[in-house]
User: Fold these one by one.
Assistant:
Number 1:
Amino acid sequence: MRLQSILLLLTAIYAVVVAAWDEKDQEIFRISEDLEKVEGKGTSFYSFLGLEKGPSSSLDEITKAYRKKSRLLHPDKMRNPSKEATDRFARLGVIANILRGPEKERYDFFLQKGFPKWKGTGYYYARFRPGLGMVFVFLYLITGAAHYLILSMNAKNERARMERYISECKAQAWPNGYPPADASKRRVQDSTGRIFTIYADGTVWIVDAASGHEYLLDVDEIPDAQWKNTLLVKLPKWAWNSTLGKYIPKREAKIVPEEIKVTAANGQRQSKKSKSEDRLPAASEPAEGAASKKIGDAPKMPLKTKTLADGSVVAEASNVAGGRRRRKK
């Protein structure tokens, strides 16, 4: 909630700032930037016209300076005027109109306070004119980033929800904050009628009312947000599988024992099994230590998740030998 409030505040500030730059302001930004690019950094409208008084120059002084400068830069004075000369003369006329009109006050404000570094999306769009492809890529990246942010927030909220269930069940089952001395399990019921079992080891299990099975509430079983689950990755995969991917057969990886040919000392050739094949015991021979190894010593299998009727995501223990089994009522 706090993050959403910050984003809304930044959006409101951005909207106010962008709305403050109208078309006249953006024209001033554009002419000022072009002027510094051609005439040199730090060149102002006044210095370009040769007005030493700067913003204190009167209307008559601005008009006289413009006429004097226009006689020097007029393309008719040149034998073969270039495009740069034509643009320079056109820029002179725009500058004179700004300084002789109501926009002079805005220009003087920016000249004194400094031109903003961010001049609005409309300004940059008019300057660089991105194509349709560039706009699509930009929107595509923004959408993917927003989708990832949503997935992250959902995962965080789901973890907080499960942690709240676990803490509330423990507090209800263990009023003093400690498990019972006889290490017995406790069962509690929340306000919605769901039943939870709390064991002495601190694990909390939710009871399925239909089957009586118990499912572990494990925060670690809730997956983190991943880029591969966003539209940024899923959309290209969907487009590929819906078009060319349908006609390209998928190759299935096959594990084939590799035979390495080596030359024996007597000059004959013999085959040598790969290292992976040497590590496997023969079918008729038991693996070393297999007879003494108990089923209970088998490695634990990963838990599977299950969504109950109320929408809760719980972990379902595997029924494989050596794994954690589902508890029955």
Number 2:
Amino acid sequence: MSSLASRVPVGSQSTTVSSPDGQNIGAVAHGSSEPPRHITPRRPPVPIIRPLGLIPIERLNYYWDTLRPTLAQLTYADNFFITGKPNFLFAASKFREYPFSDVSEVAFLGRSNVGKSSLLNALFNRTTKPIAHASSKLGRTKTMNAFGIGGSNQGGVRLKERTQDEHARVIGRGGLVVVDMPGYGMGSRESWGPEIIKYLCERKQMRRAFLLIDAEHGLKPGDLQILNIMRRSAIPHQVILSKADKLIDFKNKIPINDDKMNKRLAKLRETSERIRDVVQPCKERRFSALGEILACSAEKKINGKRLGIDAVRFAVLQAAGLEPGVGGDPLDLGIRVNSEESTIRHVQSEASTPQYFNDTGI
């Protein structure tokens, strides 16, 4: 105690010394006999609470070759899909059944029960009145189903029926067509694979294929096979981690402290990084997947918005060239397929031959 007293400045009347945990050691008086004053122990800091709806987009998604969308761009994408009126256009079991089209298309594909139909219902804001039929039964989607949205200035996207003088045609410039592909793997049919690959390789209106990967289970043999086909055929494609809520495992517990959320998001990032090494190998980067991996959930709604769906909406618009720009010029935030790649994509349509398919049921 004397050593403590020797450090008290001259002229001070009373100094209280506390231990690091806030406990009062006592008072050291200089020229005073006052008893030690009681000091309330310091409370531990209150943990910072962050609602799950405020997860930064760069923590949920993994951008390494592209720019993350701004809030204004995400809002625009939300408005496009929420205010638009999606409608079913057609179903095709074979590629030759596809109608002509003036509208850009994107396709969603993945393993059976990976959540394609559920994601599309969330994308179209039709979770209460589903437009894409979802089921826990494997292989529920048996045809290539096309849906149209947007293009309100031209009366919306619609199918103009075939006449004696004209073929059937999808019309509605300024709109978008989204194709829901049958799942591969368990519950699929061998005949589906060649038709899907024909569409991906030969459909001129197809701007990007979105491959859904289950965030909890990661890449499976069927996923690796379809990635290899798209890379060899120079098909523009991007990976989306579906059911990301299971990997984050928050179970609607709001609020949650930062430490727990950081650990869960770190786990999600590790998964994205492992997948990146596969979908964008260094030696084949030219025709590999787009340099971003999105994560989302079609089931969990946080602060009124489904997890990550706004970023998926923007990626779809960006792929189709419908994203907002400056002065009317569209923003190019991703990798576009050039004329050389397009030629390779057409020439390598032999990827649809049976030799590309194994027992995974692609």
Number 3:
Amino acid sequence: MASCVSRASRSLHSAYRAWKIRAAAVRTRSDAVLLDRLKALTVRDVQGRQQPEILYGRRKMTAWLSRGEFAGVSKHTVDRLMRLEGMNGLVRGRKPRSTVSTGKDSARAPDLLKRNFSAPHPNHSWVTDFTYVPTWGGFVYVAFAIDLYSRAIVGWHASTVKDTPFVEVCLNMALWRRDNAGHTVQPGLIHHSDAGSQYTSIRFTETVALEGLVASIGTVGDAYDNAAAETVMGLYKNEAVAKNSPFITGPLKTLADVEKLTFDWLERGINVNYDLARHYRTWLDQQSATITT
């Protein structure tokens, strides 16, 4: 009996020593490296901001990791580790906004897109819209112009007044940026917007025509006629402006705060964001791959 107990004891000790010196499993080691990368996203910089990738869900996070040192990483592995760390990504609301127009009978351009938010090449069609950001000093309005081919934001402008000159500056900035980059917009580009009073005004209609663009305006009261622009508005509000945004370092007090916030979002966030419709290529990748063709 004593010898049986002794043999059992030696066997247990041997198993314990083997377990102590055994190398960690491959999955355990790879999980540890990936977890370190995910945890690094939560580390705040000198301005108190987390990395913009902290907003990614499972699919975008997988695409982002695959572009770096984790090529071929499984979406299931990413999902499992994100759940382990309590990382859920950004959850967007669904609150489509309908257009406010000067009147249903006001003359305006036809809807040339018909909800077809695709384009065969850059500078073929742009969509534009604006949203608002509450600050201590009142509302600040931010307008964006988006190229439908790459979903790249080609122009933007912030103002405390939502008048026609406000949206004109956004358009002029987009035109200047393309021209300055050596990709001048050719006559015939479709400029699509909702039926807001700023876009249906005589002044803005003339500006679009003088630039050689073709105006296109969605129907009144239907946010889906400008859904591509609404998507960008939603991303901006949820990623840049929402509570706990990695781009906010303090309360938004003035127009200058919103301008800095928007610039940081464009530089650190949206320009490296992953467009689901483009197989997770970044919007800058998609733009760069074809703007020279």
Number 4:
Amino acid sequence: MTDFNEARERMVERQIVRRGIRDPQVLAAMRVVPREAFVPDYVRDLAYEDRPLPIGNEQTISQPAIVATMIEAAELQPGDIVLDVGTGSGYAAAVAAAIAAHVYSIERHAELVATARDILARLNISNVTVHLGDATTGLAEHAPYDAIIAAAGGPHIPAAWRNQLAIGGRIVMPVGRELHYQRLVKLVRRGEDDYRSSSLGEVSFVPLVGADAWPGPDAAQCDAGGTVGTMDTGGTGGTGGADDRRPCPMSAGAHASRHRLLAVA
């Protein structure tokens, strides 16, 4: 039988600390949140492997290192109000909630919303509230946010998130014009209309689907790259621009490879 406490400590030391994560609050949160509680029983013994894992609805729980990287980049502090985009099973929200005052998390899959709420309740994590809806519109009723952390990649940062970010707030999000390969971007709001961005490295996440991101899948025929439609190739970088491609269904194995860190800048 797996000793999950030992496996969790080994994960922190080998996968998190060795990758340069130093924030003591992040390391403490990663040590206390039981990742095995957030995955299906059939992959529970793999909970502390250095990889994403499937959680249903063609979604994955992120690789532990990318969760730690994003939360460290968000510079969370006690008292912060956080918007977590792409709840999944609730793991990243739980890690953030071990540091921040409250995490509002939004997920578009009703089944995952129910699963996350159940797991968080069983773990007595009371400072995470999970909402069902289009994450690209944010949650204006709880704004402004000190940090917004997104576990899905879009062609640009949604306008609503910028507007709902507090002055001094941070957005950490995978951004790119390729559906499944992005740059992890950190955006800091310095003033009312003053935003500064930096790149943290290459990542691979499932697409952010919504009104201000990628359109949802439809019945059209997918191309070999897992997309439908055509792409406007003008420009570089993934900070905006038109893109008519839509994410199409992927195999379970393909989805399980998402939510991972490819390189650090």
